[in-house]
Amino acid sequence: MSALSKNWIKAAPWLCTIGLFAIWELAARLFGLPQYILPAPTVVFNAIVQYWPAIWKNSLQTLYTTTLGFALAVAGGLGLGILVGWSRLIYSGLYPLMVGFNAIPKVALVPILVIWFGIGTIPAVLTAFLISFFPIVVNVATGLATIEPEMEDVLRALGARKMDIMLKVGIPRSMPYFFGSLKIAITLAFVGSVIAETVAANSGLGHMMLAAQSQFNVPLVFAGLIMLAVEGIIMYAVMAWVEMRMTGWAHRGQGATA
Amino acid sequence: MKNLVTIDNVDMRYGGADGTLAVEGLTLHVEKGEFAAVVGPSGCGKSTLMKLVTGLHIPQKGVVTVAEERVTKPVSIVGMAFQNPTMLPWRTTLDNILLPLEVVEKHRGRLRMNRAEYVAKAEKLLETVGLKGFGSKFPWQLSGGMQQRANLCRALIHEPDLLMLDEPFGALDSFTREELWCVIRDLHFERKVTIVLVTHDLREAVFLADRIFVMSSRPGRVIEERIVPFERPRDLEIMYQKEFNDIVHELRGSIADARKAA
């Protein structure tokens, strides 16, 4: 690959993003769309500057509920995933329950969480947890369940206990699945926390956007969206970086083979 | 010579009382230090044989004895290698080879304190199979043939008395396969280890083995036992002699009959 095309590949994400905003700006100006339908990006950025203290405070709140819910999901998902992948009995017992539970739209759970914990941070954290938990469990369990039978035979013939096989083969083997699922889980966690904030909270970006909408402050609604996208991209990038650091062996390129 | 492996009138059925009967009335024995090969049509229960000898399956009927002890649980004096090398990609080749030592009761306690000694042993093994200096490479940096050599090292690191090989050369090209035949021939000669090789390849069986068992289609049992008379050490050249081809030809006939009977 030539240096030129490599540079283009590096520049492509920035060019596309700038392009999108440029088209958006042009369309808003050309068709003279009113601000309460589609504010131009410049208007949105003005709103971000104008309302910065409120946006900053609410962004931090959303980031806090999301990461806390996500952290709980990582701990719980890893634990339950190992348990489910460990034993066929636990697997067959819990799997239908988990599928059924995952099928429930999480927004329907928020009213119950509000009854139990009141309006505020806790329902947002729990919704983020509930929605991001499932992909982690499924991925960890898949990693454990797909141990090569030959590998298991080799070790079992040597007198390995189930624990040995899990520690030496199963858990390291499921790590790429686990770290891969973190990228999905973190974006879902944002979905969960914002849903809960929109329905039942007095802070956070979801709450802020709902309040702005009721005042027809559409630029501020869009400012909230932009902040959510920025937070989402940053957290996704962090997870992708962690994945590369922890399981580089699973991402070997063609250049690595001898 | 004493028998290291004795299988006496064994039935093995999978999946409960009316499941598939994999082997029926299976009887064979392998002497200590011998190189035995098991050949037969596919689905004749060769893999079941592997699992019976290593104690991964306990038969419903009959007795399996390894080293004068009845097999009732996994037998850790056995090393195993399969067609799929199953190297762990997150460990270096050396660490993959040391893996059995982290498991076998006798070594797991000693490994941490005496690591240097075990590493030296692993490196010597690597040299024997022609992989000197490759210990620090990851398995995915090795070719298929090299991975299979490393797989043999892993099967031998805990100095097993019995080596069970389940079509270990099946996925390799014919030149690599011949090289590995010589590697395993030399390992057998130097280490005096007893080897049971399960294979589809009759020429491989005749070249390597002292004794060949031909198995019937499912339910598998031994329909023919044949001593291979060639002197050791054997050279690849013997494969082009008339006597060699005669044995291969006869074995082929027996297996064709076994397939027809199925």
Report the end-to-end length of chain B measured between terminal Cα atoms: 35 Å
Range of strand content of chain B: 15-25%
Tell me the number of helical segments of chain A per DSSP (H or I, 4 or more residues long).
Answer: 10
In percent terms, what proportion of residues of chain A is strand? under 5%
Overall number of strands of chain A = 0
- CATH architecture label of chain A: Orthogonal Bundle
What overall geometry of chain B do the principal axes of the alpha carbons give?
A: globular
> Which spans of chain B have pLDDT < 50 for at least 5 consecutive residues?
none
CATH fold annotation of chain A: MetI-like fold
Decide which structural class fits the backbone of chain B.
alpha/beta
Task: Walk me through what this model shows.
The complex is a heterodimer of chains A (258) and B (262). Chain A has a single domain (58-245), classed as Orthogonal Bundle (MetI-like fold). Chain A has 10 helices and no strands. Chain A has helices spanning 3-30, 41-50, 52-86, 88-103, 110-117, 121-145, 149-157, 162-199, 205-214, 218-246. The longest helix of chain A has 38 residues, at 162-199. In chain A, 36% of the residues are buried. Chain B is of the alpha/beta class and 262 residues long. Chain B is 35% helix and 23% strand. Chain B has 8 helices and 10 strands. The longest helix of chain B has 20 residues, at 242-261. The two termini of chain B are 35 Å apart. The interface between A and B is medium-sized, with 24 and 31 residues.
Compact overview of the structure:
Chain A is mainly α and 258 residues long. Chain A has 10 helices and no strands. Helix content of chain B is 35%, strand content 23%.
Give the helix/strand layout.
The complex is a heterodimer of chains A (258) and B (262).
Chain A: H1 3-30, H2 41-50, H3 52-86, H4 88-103, H5 110-117, H6 121-145, H7 149-157, H8 162-199, H9 205-214, H10 218-246
Helix pairs in contact in A: 2-10, 3-4, 3-6, 3-8, 3-9, 5-6, 6-8, 8-9, 8-10, 9-10
Chain B: E1 3-13, E2 21-31, E3 35-39, H1 46-54, E4 61-66, E5 69-70, E6 78-82, H2 93-98, H3 105-108, H4 115-128, H5 144-156, E7 162-166, H6 174-191, E8 194-198, H7 202-208, E9 211-215, E10 222-227, H8 242-261
Parallel strand pairs in B: 3-8, 3-9, 6-7, 7-8
Antiparallel strand pairs in B: 1-2, 1-4, 4-5, 9-10
